[in-house]
Amino acid sequence: QLSCLVKMVTLHGIPKDLDSYPEDLLLFLSPSDYAATGSCRQYFAKIGKANLDVLQRESSQRKQLLLEALACLKIPGTQVNEENAEILGRLVCDLGGEYMKNSGGNLLKQLSQCESFLPDQEEAIRSVISSGNTTFGPPVAWSAFTLNELSGLIPVFDHSILQKIPK
């Protein structure tokens, strides 16, 4: 339905008021389509707020979005800073485990919004959490507020993490 809607909206060219359309609609446009309205950074900041699950997890379209986002943000290697993590939003859900390990805690806030994880992502999240080198600190120092912030990641925590969290 969204794909068809995009065809209708762009029938007479790309509208100048793309920002007034739902973010999910933008998933079916490319950054070059959006360029007339704003920068690729703005485009991916909008995409990061969209419901990525409209696209199948391993679909070529979703993979292409992530590749274009990494290129737009000029992310070298597999380390994402906090500012870029904010722009990527839900796109971080598709990053590989090596990005999660190398980015430290920069991705945790966005990762807590993901629906599911692949095994290498889960392992990376546990590794980062266990290290304690995040803005949340080590699990032994967590409060109810911290758990609330990371609530989407709780299913990924293993016994060694859970037992360190204060009652």
Automatic annotation (TrEMBL):
Q: Where in the cell is it found?
A: Membrane
InterPro entries per the record? Answer: Mesothelin, Stereocilin-rel
**Is Membrane found in the keyword set?**
yes
Q: Which keywords does the record carry?
A: Cell adhesion, Glycoprotein, Membrane, Signal
User: PANTHER family in the record, alphabetically?
Assistant: MESOTHELIN (PTHR23412:SF6), STEREOCILIN RELATED (PTHR23412)
What protein does this entry describe? Answer: MSLN protein
Q: Does the keyword Membrane apply?
A: yes
Q: What is its main location?
A: membrane
- Could you state one GO cellular component term attached to this entry? cell surface
Q: Which GO terms describe its biological process?
A: cell-matrix adhesion
Q: Give the family, as the similarity comment puts it.
A: Belongs to the mesothelin family.
Give a single Pfam family match: Mesothelin
Residues in a coiled coil are: none
